[in-house]
Design brief:
This protein has 182 residues and is an alpha+beta fold. The chain has a single domain (11-178), classed as Alpha-Beta Complex (Cathepsin B, Chain A), CATH 3.90.70.30. Helix content is 19%, strand content 22%. It is built from 4 helices and 8 strands. 32% of the residues are buried.
Length: 182
Amino acid sequence: MCGNPHRNGAQRASIAREPRPDRPPSVFEMTIIKQFNDHACFLACLESFLADQGAQVTQRQICEMFPECCDCGKLTEGTFQLTNQECLKRVGQKYGFVANWVLALPETIAAGETIFVIPTNMHGQGSTHCVRFHRHLSHTEIEVMDPNLNRHNDNLEYDRWPHDNLGHWKCNLLKLKKIHQE
């Protein structure tokens, strides 16, 4: 899904979930995950979401469990087959979530929900990527968890995107919602 497959450096990291005075209390701190290679951005976002729901699973484990959905063993290993609805459905059934495409970012995200922002023309270069929406900073800017940001160092921070990027980069929005499993 993202960049060059020849770098490898999986890192799992998270920001402490303590209240921060510079953020409103209604904004939760999401787990920041760095993708394990240049293609695993969707899997890193999925690992982040699942970690916030209490699941302890890594992007590599998801890749190994669903090899046909993640190009496991190929140069593009980690690329999640979003165009294959069966893959998304099977992963959702395994980890207890449903996924639906939505047309706009909500004002707030409810507990057990997230939005993946998936540009299909990132930087106008035709490349695809996946980030996890965190919050609106203003009417012109959003904050996202970008699993490729600072991937090769120890910095854990969110990225800021102008709202205009959503249109310029032809972004699709995928909403994941935790379901209660019996």
